[in-house]
Design goal:
single chain; 307 residues; alpha+beta; Pseudouridine synthase; four-stranded antiparallel sheet
């Protein structure tokens, strides 16, 4: 059975009368040169009223344009394998997953299997989709919560531009050691690599890149604080490094000095994801409840839509 490729259908408006298909694709659909080349040379099609056309086709109002994207080619390091997936939302362009803690996002030398990307590839194959995995926002292996994944290069291009323009918003819930004050704050401290480590980061006032984290205290306990966190920049381990630098490492985060007596992974959960659909314009505002390990330490249920 032939695998299903991503298709995009548009009705040509009167304002585009006489316009070349090439110009329409660039101005109206914002297709990159790379995507146009992929359609042309890797098995895609451009159909106008059901007939295959080239980019030199002259358009007329009322015509139907159907773009059939070529089959996606996955990277060699991805291996199709069943991995538990908690899919929050899915359509032909994207999938949102609530990732469990302990699952790496992409394969590496240390974790070649059991990754989210491998599991998604397997899922796409089971659904007979000619798709591969384009990660939009990545989470650390032991961070849980919402992840946005594009199912084709066209969607990924749109999301990449949205990210650069800060149009994809995420918030996290974290349990930090100690009692944090004041109720709201901003940590503005540059982050860079720690010498001698390929993984660890640190606040680096000389060579680090500017990094900004906003937080709001939700509840204080005798020895820990529940905070909602918004990233203004997206550095590796940013939340973990910033709170550790303030003397409040995350619970369970042994890499950055967090206590591990109550939790064996960093107490960090991506609970909110807000984005606009790249093709329909629909606004998505998604929430994922706290996983059981963090919820047990929080105690009372947290109303996510009121944070």
């Amino acid at each position: 059975m032939e695998k299903k490729c991503f298709q995009l259908v548009r009705r040509i408006g009167a304002a585009q009368e006489g316009e070349l298909l090439r110009d329409y694709l660039r101005k109206e659909l914002h297709l990159s040169h790379r995507t146009l080349s992929a359609i042309k040379y890797k098995g895609g099609k451009m159909l106008v009223d059901g007939r295959e056309q080239t980019v030199r086709c002259v358009l007329h109002g009322g015509q139907e344009l159907r773009l059939i994207m070529p089959p996606e080619e996955h990277s060699d390091f991805l291996v199709s394998e069943p991995v538990p997936l908690n899919i929050v939302y899915e359509d032909e362009s994207l999938v949102v997953v609530n990732k469990q803690a302990g699952i790496p996002v992409i394969p590496s030398h240390q974790y070649p299997s059991g990754t989210l990307a491998n599991g998604l590839l397997y899922y796409f194959e089971q659904e007979n989709l000619a798709s591969t995995v384009h990660i939009v926002n990545r989470l650390d292996r032991n961070t849980s919560g919402l992840m946005l994944v594009a199912k084709n290069r066209f969607s990924h291009e749109r999301f990449f531009k949205m990210q650069k323009q800060k149009q994809i918003r995420r918030r996290y819930l974290a349990l930090a050691a100690g009692v944090i004050s004041p109720d709201k704050g901003m940590i503005d401290a540059p982050i860079g690599r720690k010498e001698g480590s390929a993984i660890e980061r640190k606040v680096d006032w000389l060579d680090g890149r500017r990094s900004i984290t906003e937080y709001k205290v939700l509840k204080r306990y005798t020895s820990r604080t529940l905070v909602a966190v918004r990233l203004m920049t997206g550095r590796t381990h940013q939340i973990r490094v910033h709170f550790s630098s303030q003397g409040h490492p995350l619970l369970g985060d042994d890499l950055y000095g967090g206590p591990t007596d109550q939790l064996t992974r960093q107490a960090l959960h991506s609970f909110e994801l807000v984005f606009t659909h790249p093709f329909t314009g629909q606004l998505f505002h998604l929430h994922a409840p706290l996983p059981a390990d963090m919820a047990q330490l929080v105690g009372v249920p947290v109303s996510l839509d009121q944070i």
